[in-house]
Every structure is written in C-alpha cells, then in structure tokens.
Amino acid sequence: ARREGRNHIEFYSPTAWLQARRRLEIEHALRGALEQEEFSLAYQPLIDLADGGVCGMEALLRWHHPELGPCAPGEFIEIAEATGDIVAIGEWVLREACRQAAAWDASGLRFGRMSVNVSAVQLRDPGFTQRVLLACADTGWSTARLELEITESALLLDTDALWECFGALQSAGVALAVDDFGTGFSSLSYLSRFPVGRLKIDRSFIAGLAASDGTGRAVEVTRAIIQLGKALRMQVLAEGVESNEDERLLREYGCDEVQGYLHSRPLAPREMVRWLQARALS
Ligand code: C2E
Ligand code: CA
Ligand code: CA
Ligand code: CA
Predict the structure, then answer these.
(1) Where are the transmembrane segments (predicted)?
(2) 3-state class (DSSP) for residue 55
C-alpha cells in the first residue's frame, strides 16, 4: 500500500475492498433489475390490539438477482438511494402494492389499509404527489386506504415543497406514518407541523421488552413514545413483536397496533392469501 494517507491504507484492507466490490456489483445489477422483473413484494399483516383483527398490510420489497445471491432491502435500498434508482423502484413498489391491494379487495379479502415505504429521495422528486394519486387512480385503490411510511430523516428536509406535498396527500386522504420512530436524531418539532397520523416504534426498542421483564431503558423509551403519540392524538404501532409477552406489555402500555413474527413473517402474495383465509375461518 502507498502511504499517502489513512484512506489509502483503509482502501487496501481486504474487507473494505470486498465491501466496495459488492457495492459496485449491486449498483450495476440494480440498473437492469426493474426491466428484468427481478423485484417482488412481500406482505406483513398489521394487527389491531383492540380486537386482534388485521388492520393493514405493509409491502416490503424483495429482490431476486440470478447471480448476486440473497440481497436484503437493508443492503440495496441505501445503494439505490445513492444512485437515484430508488425513484423508479419506489414507484414500481407503490403501483404494485396498490394493484395487489385492489385485486385482493375485489376478491373479498379483508385486510384494511395498504402501507408502503417511501424513501426521502422519492419525496424530493417534485412529481411525487401526482404519482401517488395516479397510482391509486390507475389501480382503483382508494387513497383513503393507502398509507405512506416515511422515516424521520426524510422529515428533516422540512421544506416548503415537502409541506405542499404532504398537504396535497392529506387532502386526498392518504395517511402518513413516521417509520423507525426514535432512531433518527431529530428535534420533534416536525410532529406538530406535518400531518402525521401514526408513529411506528422501531424494532430495536421492542427487541428488549420481554427480556427486560418490564424494566430497563427500552421499556421506558417505548412507553414514552406511546404516551407522546397519545398526547398528539396519533396512533402508535410497534414493529418486531416476536412474543406473546412483548404483545402483552405493549397492550398494557396502550399501544394501538403491532406487527411482527408473532403474527406472521412477511409473506409472498399467495401465502398471504392463504394466511388471510385461514384467519377469517378461525
Ligand atoms: P422497516 O420499514 O422498518 O420494515 C420492517 C422490517 O422488519 C422488515 O425487514 C421486516 O421483515 C422486519 N420484521 C418484521 N417483523 C419482525 C420481527 O418480528 N422480527 C424481526 N427480527 N424482524 C421483523 P425487511 O423486509 O428486510 O426490510 C428492511 C427495511 O428496508 C425496511 O425496514 C425498510 O426501511 C426498507 N424497505 C423495505 N421495503 C422497502 C421499499 O419498498 N421502499 C423503501 N424505501 N424501503 C423499503
Ligand atoms: Ca416500514
Ligand atoms: Ca424503515
Ligand atoms: Ca424499523
């Protein structure tokens, strides 16, 4: 290695080199992924703690590339955001989720709202609102049953354009949720300004709940978020609920909805149909 600076030496370390190579491979493979129809959506049910019913679905992106091997959204979304590919991919997600929701609804399945993840990069695109409304109009999915999940970092943009975008979505009846709430560093000021109806507590807080037996910091943060949500008249959903004990504690704290492996992993569409049908019978 040449010794011109720290970065050079780090670049030559084998792990950094492998990471950089993997990143480039993903970047390259992403370019053709939409056209090659390599994406699909998995769906995870959202459960209302008041009556145990299914109150929604979250659409989660899956990518099957023939050579890369398994590549989770946690790995490729960040790269797609950096290249800008997320704008087209995100629009595909939105349309596919609405199309699927309308088809399920027409076949008599009951599942409430469809919730779709939206990246900060998509929000920056001036045509975003129109595209959302068009996706609903084209697929026949009601805007009143669509929710967009937006991370705290996206709300930090806090521009007039973002304001207008949210205003237009709100008047069209589209709901907004703050995703991964509690993990972004942010002032909470946006909560009083943006028309956000729901907070989603990140899995990292829920993972410690049952283990800590109702004590500890994760518990306090979780309770505080639920209280905050209530004070602001928002709904609160906890993600990553894996045990009955997690769910019992969350119900006790006044959480409205849960999502997690306890009820179901994210499922391919056909599996989800079976899951919904089995549940409707029981
Ligand atoms: P997220 O929005 O916080 O989604 C929840 C993640 O937690 C999903 O991971 C889900 O499979 C996982 N999960 C749900 N319940 C449990 C549980 O009980 N235990 C555990 N251990 N995990 C659980 P996934 O599908 O790998 O997605 C990771 C992240 O990628 C998502 O986190 C979201 O930020 C992003 N993502 C996924 N799909 C999209 C998309 O279409 N657009 C955008 N912009 N981001 C997406
Ligand atoms: Ca989400
Ligand atoms: Ca997220
Ligand atoms: Ca999360």
Answers:
(1) none
(2) strand
pTM score of the predicted model:
0.94
pLDDT in tens, 177-197: 999 998 876 678 888 888 899
Task: Return the residue whose CA atom lies nearest to atom 20 of ligand 1.
Answer: 240
Q: Mutual orientation of helices 86-106 and 128-139 as an angle, nearest 10°?
A: 30
Distances (CA, A) of 247 to 26, 240, 254: 37, 10, 11
**b vs e for 113-139, b when ≥16 Cβ sit within 10 Å of the residue's Cβ?**
bbbbbbbbbbbebeebbebbbebbeeb
Alpha carbon distance 72, 172 (integer Å): 32
- Is 182 close to ligand 1, i.e. is its CB under 6 Å away? no
For residues 222 and 214, give the distance between their C-alpha atoms in angstroms, rounded to a whole number: 11
Distance 60 CA to ligand 1 centre (A): 6
Rounded distance between C-alpha atoms, residue 5 and residue 67, angstroms: 35
Q: Is the ipTM of this complex over 0.90?
A: yes
Nearest ligand 1 atom to the CA of 118 is 44
Cβ(93) – ligand 1 distance below 6 Å: yes
b vs e for 165-198, b when ≥16 Cβ sit within 10 Å of the residue's Cβ?
bbeebeeeebbbbbbbbbeeebeeebbeebebeb
Q: Which-ligand-closest: CA of 149?
A: 2
